[in-house]
Specification:
The complex is a heterodimer of chains A (237) and B (357). By secondary structure, chain A is an alpha/beta fold. Helix content of chain A is 37%, strand content 25%. Chain A has a domain at 80-154. Chain A is built from nine helices and ten strands. Chain B has 357 residues and is mainly α. Chain B is globular and about 65 Å long. The chains are: A alpha/beta (237), B mainly alpha (357). Bound molecules: adenosine-5'-diphosphate and magnesium ion (MG).
Chain lengths: 237, 357
């Protein structure tokens, strides 16, 4: 059984169809790449999946459960967690406290949350910045913090929205390794990314969105060989 | 190898010095009435405690959770009226009436929360003002219950006796001093407990970024209402205490927008979202309000020769400065926001950190 099923999801903003009849499904343990030009509706799809917006039409089924209408906090508790394309650090709180907020999703004990948080901070290699206020981090560090915090909620499905955006090649490489390490632990992931090389390397399958519609779906090899994708997206980029 | 996790701000050497200083201050506060008999000095101390209680209470919802309620007079009034009505109508002692005040404030906070927490930012602020005004107008127009604009004057305060033994008969200011001190310490303790629990993390996450907090599994309406409930409960304690101390309440003193604004200012000027910010805010604002009220400032300007008493300015100051507290508060807030955005406490901390670094 698929872990996540997106069934004919549409999202309208007034007359604009940001997502239009999108369907696909994800098996447990895989990495699904989600690509498409700016404004294709990738972030909107994340917002619909995680309860930030209710989809206008269609259905989202996670682990056999219909998710439509659930609030983001319930979605997170049920095991789906997302990062934000425009990072949202809790600026005045320390790195540790930021990640502890994520960990407190699963425990009421501060000492337990602290332990869980430290574990994730080590995973993203921010342990030299533990007591540092999140507002003072570099963009690369903020992206890592975003990942550590969301990992601390112990998701079954992780949705990463352009975590490599704005990073230099060395930092991007670190994130790629991180994503592959998270996969090793059995966490299913959906990854939005603009860097074609990176997405081809990490994804098991790729969905291409264009103007809100699903243009293609397949393995990375199938996607690069798809003439429609090449003209609509890869060619023009 | 596992490094021991650092707890933010947990440098044990500095915290030990802080602990000793705190114990000394506590001992001094405990002994204060044995050395100082002046009723006026005790009065000022009681006002300082009251200011601290109000500031700490607001700090929970405003400072930690980031929901700037400018309607806290509603909860203050709920405590004051709850206690006073029970005492005057049914002769129920205030130490029981306090709980009626708390219950009223909690019910009110649930109603206000369910209305106002749908809104964010400035809309929340405006809604909180509006709802508190509705509460004030309701009290004004329910003379059967609240005695309307005339207010309620306390006729008789029964002595506090425990197990048949009279603990105090409330003739001097000393019992009020200790009640105020206890309540102030209690609100500080509650704040400390909140900050060092899951609640504090959830509150601060909501303050820093509501959407991020929501996506990390925090139930926004649950935690916002919880913060408001704690805040309302503590504020109503301040109201009850005020009522039995001053022995007179009416809508323009315990339910007014003026009071709501003062409560916010104590926290903002001291430094929001910190345990001791409201204490500092109270130490700044209470003496200032008192100096303005008793015309000390105008008198001082005249005595120092800066302003001639019979000059136009001297007469004007003497007549008007006492009523200018709102203006002066306004100026103070502007100064604090411009030069000390983290409040007086934050400013002092920054200065001392700069000296060390
Ligand atoms: N809250 C919103 N209100 C109105 N339009 C929106 C909103 N969010 C996104 N959009 C529009 O939906 C389209 C898809 O946006 P988005 O999902 O952010 O694209 P992507 O993440 O693929 O770059 C864009 O045209 C964008 O302007
Ligand atoms: Mg996007």
């Amino acid at each position: 059984m698929a872990l996540l099923e997106i069934k004919n999801v549409s999202k309208f903003f007034g007359g604009l169809a940001a997502n239009s009849d999108v369907s696909f499904s994800m098996d447990e343990g895989m990495i699904m790449g989600l690509i498409g030009p700016n404004g294709a509706g990738k972030t909107t799809l994340f917002n619909c999946i995680t309860g930030y917006y209710p989809p206008s039409r269609g259905e989202i089924v996670f682990a056999g459960r219909r998710m439509n209408g659930l609030q983001p906090d319930r979605v997170c508790k049920l095991g789906m967690a997302r990062t934000w394309q425009k990072v949202r650090p809790l600026a005045k709180l320390s790195v540790l406290d930021n990640v502890m907020v994520g960990a407190l999703c699963r425990t009421n004990s501060l000492s337990q949350a602290q332990e869980l948080a430290m574990e994730q901070i080590r995973v993203v290699k921010l342990d030299h910045k533990t007591a540092f206020p999140a507002g003072g981090l570099t963009i690369g560090e903020r992206k890592k913090l975003e990942v550590a915090r969301v990992l601390a909620t112990q998701p079954k499905l992780l949705l990463l929205d352009e975590v490599m955006g704005g990073l230099n090649p060395a930092e991007s490489e670190e994130i790629i390794r991180l994503i592959l390490a998270i996969k090793q632990k059995g966490v299913t992931q959906m990854v939005i990314e603009h860097d074609m090389k990176a997405i081809m390397r990490i994804s098991d399958r790729i969905v291409v969105l264009n103007s809100g519609e699903k243009l293609a779906e397949g393995t990375p090899e199938e996607i690069v060989a798809n003439p429609e994708v090449v003209t609509a997206y890869l060619g023009s980029d | 190898m596992r490094r021991p996790p650092q707890i933010p701000g947990g440098e044990s050497g500095r915290s030990r010095v802080g602990l000793v200083a705190m114990l000394l201050v506590l001992a001094g506060l405990y002994a204060f009435p044995s050395f100082v008999q002046s009723p006026y000095a005790l009065h000022i101390m009681i006002l300082l405690f009251l200011g601290t209680i109000m500031g700490e209470s607001w700090n929970i919802i405003g400072g930690y959770t980031g929901q700037y309620s400018v309607g806290h007079a509603a909860y203050f009034g709920a405590g004051a009226y709850g206690t006073m009505i029970l005492l005057q109508k049914w002769e129920i002692a205030p130490w029981k009436g306090v709980f009626a005040g708390i219950a009223a404030a909690l019910v009110l906070s649930l109603v206000i929360g369910s209305i106002c927490f749908r809104l964010r930012g400035p809309y929340f602020v405006l809604a909180s003002i509006a709802v508190a005004e509705i509460v004030r107008l309701t009290a004004l127009n329910l003379p059967n219950v609240t005695n309307g604009a005339e207010g309620i004057l306390m006729s008789d305060l029964p002595p506090l006796s425990i197990g048949g033994r009279v603990v105090t008969d409330f003739v001097s200011k000393v019992p009020y001093y200790y009640i105020g001190l206890t309540l102030a310490l209690f609100t500080i303790l509650v704040t400390w407990l909140v900050q060092h629990s899951k609640l504090g993390y959830c509150f601060q996450a909501i303050r820093e970024d509501q959407d991020a907090a929501h996506s990390l599994g925090i139930n926004l309406s649950l935690y916002k209402n919880c913060a408001l409930g704690i805040s309302a409960t503590l504020t109503s304690l301040a109201g009850s205490f005020y009522a039995i101390y001053i022995k007179f309440i009416d809508p323009t003193t315990v339910l007014a927008l003026d009071l709501s604004v003062q409560i916010v200012l104590i926290a903002i000027i001291g430094g929001i979202g910190t345990i001791f910010g409201p204490v500092v805010g109270s130490l700044v604002l209470v003496p200032l309000a008192e100096a303005l009220r008793s015309n000390i400032v105008a008198q001082w300007l005249i005595n120092s020769g800066l302003v001639r008493e019979d000059s136009g300015l001297g007469v004007f100051l003497k007549e008007n400065l006492a009523h200018a507290h709102v203006l002066i508060y306004g100026i103070l807030v502007v100064v604090v926001i411009l030069f000390m955005p983290e409040g007086v406490l934050g400013y002092v901390r920054k200065l001392s950190a700069r000296k060390k670094g």
